[in-house]
Amino acid sequence: MEISRVGLVTRKLANMTKPVTEISILGDQWTIKTITPIKTVEATFKLGTEFDEVTLDGRKVKTTVTLEGQKLTCYQKGDPDSILVREFIDNKMILWLTAKGVTCKRIYKRKEE
Question: Whole-model pTM?
């Protein structure tokens, strides 16, 4: 079993950031924009259609997004392959990210307007 480690500085920076995720829909076009103090990435796509994406950590991947109920799932083919599941519950979005057999969880709260 291969164990990969994230450097101490990278891990501390990641833990300190509070990313903002904006999701918008215009017709059948979806856009997910992730904003951090270090970098902002944006992906525009149609559900079920593979597209090229550059992830927040700089990986170039082929992504396909599906929607089932309240779960938006991004299947990313790259090095490594990964799956992001965004589950919408009440005023929260729970993000599950799985890569190399490891899963992490981050909880976002909807910003009050």
Answer: 0.84
